[in-house]
């Protein structure tokens, strides 16, 4: 590097830093600027459900001073106020007006309608709470007008169409031959369903956002040797879906998975799938052992039913979000690989779109990395080493020549991947997979919106919400599925027990949030060594018809 170039670079860098500090300072000043003391509120309720007739509703205001959302005391309100509607609800519209004094310093205001518990999970009033940030634009016009319009949370897509799409894109699952715990079903636990309470970990965000100190879980008996039939759980929705608490103005962690609504948008749809395992053992014998496991992936489908993107999650990350043409599929069924662990572990069941590679995982710190050395070890698509669980609608004839690889003779290398991680250097193979079949996905189960289970429909195009009685408890349950509801390091056993999974479909953990957002942009996760990103780049010829 020449001296002139160095000087120019350093000057540019100094200018950038000064500009950033100036902008940051201006932004913070804007955040804490106090508006006039008394601010008028005009709040309206529209399309109020008849179930709320006779209910008395109130409005809760909470002011936060939170210029840096990671601050320890950020989530303690600096001021709370409540205003009650003057009369019980008696029509489909109502309104309340009042004036409120604001604190001198605040950054975020939440306005929440309370007293609507009867319709929670059935009708959404939109973002509740509704968030406002104390910015310069608000200071200039401190007049708050907000309409809370209730909409049905029923699915807008007919059941028959949901089922057709779920069948059309159900996965071909690839496992190591010696994989011990293959996917089964949760219905077998129906007779043992009993909710229990556990103490939330101190770092759990719900302690801050909801004041919640306990959570719910269900402890299952060990039935791993019986009723092994594989079921696949799914939910199909329009891609333009919204969850309360995801506004850009909202403080992080206030996402409300029971308050969501659907819009048709451009007609694109998302199919979310969940695969149930009775047990999670890995990624090593030392750690992350727990009862129950729900692994998920999602597909973005065009309005005319063509696959556009795939998103896979695991280990509380987006493992992969990429074009559907960058993975192998057979008749629209994506070929997905389930990892074993290392050091004799059966594995944590993460799912990848590629086989024959490993990812070394972080165990938390250098010492744990050294002691446990956790890996995800993905199987190859090979008759001698792997087995398959297939959708019911694939025949043995379909498996005589399964394409593995991009199919492009000169496939370009994927940027930022070394050759050990990049399958694009290998020639495309065609595998006779008939001898690999271990089992079938015997049943696809639609996950019903929890608030509508077993009830007569309002807007639903099918006019009903019939649910298998064995599943109704699971669909309504908010909590963890399994007898390990929180992490537990047992030094005497040399075991780390992880958390059993949060219930689908709208979990409160980070990982499941990703299946509610549309697969949308190229993303992949890299860990201690290796990554889950594309191993080849395909084109229109890559999916096998």
UniProtKB/TrEMBL annotation:
Keyword Signal listed: yes
Keywords: Lipoprotein, Signal
Protein name: Lipoprotein
Disordered: annotated segments: 498-545
Organismal lineage: Bacteria, Pseudomonadati, Spirochaetota, Spirochaetia, Leptospirales
Biased composition (Basic and acidic residues): 519-530
Signal peptide coordinates: 1-26
Top-level division of the source organism's lineage: Bacteria
């Amino acid at each position: 590097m020449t001296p002139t170039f160095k000087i120019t670079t350093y000057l540019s860098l100094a200018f950038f830093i000064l500009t950033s500090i100036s902008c940051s300072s201006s932004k913070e000043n804007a955040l804490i600027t106090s508006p006039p003391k008394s601010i008028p509120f005009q709040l309206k309720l529209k399309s109020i459900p008849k179930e709320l007739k006779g209910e008395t509703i109130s409005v809760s205001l909470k002011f936060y001073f939170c210029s840096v959302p990671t601050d320890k005391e950020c989530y303690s309100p600096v001021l709370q106020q409540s205003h009650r509607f003057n009369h019980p609800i008696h029509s489909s519209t109502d309104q309340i007006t009042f004036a409120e004094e604001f604190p001198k310093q605040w950054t975020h205001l939440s306005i929440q309608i309370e007293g609507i518990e009867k319709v929670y999970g059935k009708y959404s009033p939109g973002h509740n709470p509704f968030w406002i940030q104390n910015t310069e634009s608000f200071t200039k016009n401190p007049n708050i007008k907000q309409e809370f319009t209730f909409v049905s949370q029923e699915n807008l897509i007919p059941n028959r169409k949901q089922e057709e799409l779920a069948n059309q894109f159900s996965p071909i699952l690839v496992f190591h031959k010696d994989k011990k715990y293959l996917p089964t079903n949760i219905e077998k636990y129906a007779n043992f369903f009993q909710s229990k309470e556990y103490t939330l970990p101190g770092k759990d965000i719900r302690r801050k956002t909801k004041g919640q100190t306990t959570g719910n879980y269900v402890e299952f008996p060990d039935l791993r040797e019986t009723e092994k039939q594989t079921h696949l759980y799914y939910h199909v929705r329009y891609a333009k879906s919204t969850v309360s608490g995801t506004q850009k103005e909202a403080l992080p962690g206030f996402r409300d998975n029971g308050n969501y609504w659907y819009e048709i948008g451009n007609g694109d749809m998302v199919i979310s799938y969940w695969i149930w395992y009775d047990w999670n053992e890995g990624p090593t014998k030392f750690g992350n052992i727990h009862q129950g496991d729900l692994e998920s992936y999602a597909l973005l489908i065009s309005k005319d039913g063509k696959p556009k993107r795939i998103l896979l999650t695991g280990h509380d990350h987006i493992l992969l979000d990429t074009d559907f043409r960058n993975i192998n599929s057979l008749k629209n069924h994506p070929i997905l690989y389930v990892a074993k662990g290392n050091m004799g572990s059966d594995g944590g069941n993460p799912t990848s779109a590629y086989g024959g590679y490993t990812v070394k995982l972080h165990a938390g710190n250098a010492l744990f990395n050294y002691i446990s050395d956790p890996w995800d070890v993905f199987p190859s698509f090979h008759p001698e080493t792997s087995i398959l669980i297939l959708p019911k609608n694939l025949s043995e004839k379909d498996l005589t020549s399964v394409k593995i690889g991009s199919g492009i003779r000169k496939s370009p290398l994927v940027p930022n991947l070394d050759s050990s991680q990049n399958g694009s250097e290998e020639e495309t193979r065609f595998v006779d997979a008939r001898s690999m079949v271990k089992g079938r996905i015997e049943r696809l189960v639609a996950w019903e919106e929890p608030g509508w289970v077993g009830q007569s429909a309002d807007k639903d195009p099918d006019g009903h919400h019939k649910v298998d009685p064995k599943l109704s408890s699971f669909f309504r349950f908010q909590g963890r599925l399994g007898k390990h509801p929180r992490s537990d390091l047992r030094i005497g056993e040399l075991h780390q027990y992880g958390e059993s999974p949060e219930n689908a479909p709208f979990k409160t953990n980070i990982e499941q949030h990703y299946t509610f957002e549309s697969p949308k942009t190229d993303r992949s996760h890299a860990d201690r060594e290796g990554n889950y990103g594309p191993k080849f780049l395909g084109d229109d010829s890559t999916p096998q018809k």
